[in-house]
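Protein in question kept in full:
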Amino acid sequence: MLPDGPYFQAMVEGPSRPHPQGMVDRWPDLFRLGFSRSEQPGSSGVPGDTDDSSPEIEFVAYGEDCLLVGRTVLDADRLSDMLNAHEEYVLAGVTVQRLDGGEPFEIDEIAVPRDEIFLVHAQGPRGDAERRHRTSPHHLALKMGPFKVRGYFHALPGADPVDALRRRKAMVPLTDARIEYTYAGERREIKVDALIVNREQIDWVEAVVPTEVEFPEGPRRVAAAPA
């Protein structure tokens, strides 16, 4: 969980908190092979176990040591709503891309806990426009395990964006986002229109100007130490 205080930068001394064990090391715990949705005995409350009326969407999840590219069932108006409503997601037709450059492999179906996921991007609806509130975009840089993320976080006018982010539900949407990471020893950068970040996997976050070329080396502001 993120520390209390006005900024995530409250983690001042000592090493960053450890992230969960890599996904690839935990495949036996995550497998859900041999079951199609029609074979499931009713809905389990997990995306992928719903009826056929829910649309299927392409889904890319970023874990500690791999990317999962597959499909899932969207059982809510918006992807962020679905991700916040469940603590586990069923993906089908999954290709696993190891960040260390190991040979990719495929899995028929897999159940992934939310706390194993750092980032998600997918093609899905943006939801009912009438539900949206007037917000101001704030450009943020976020360090999340092996990933460097930049994008626009939308907060209420006048709100401190970092504090507002800390108060959101676990899965938080960004727009016009960039993801930087290392794959097989080489730097990669991906740009997406919309990205959802797992707030509980953030090491630190900093408000930055959109024209800033280099990713910050670390947080520039630090919360005052408690008296």
User: Anything to note?
Assistant: The longest helix spans residues 79-85. The radius of gyration is 18 Å. The beta strands are 56-62, 66-73, 88-98, 105-113, 119-122, 136-144, 147-155, 171-183, 186-198, 204-207. Residues 171 and 198 are 5 Å apart (CA to CA).
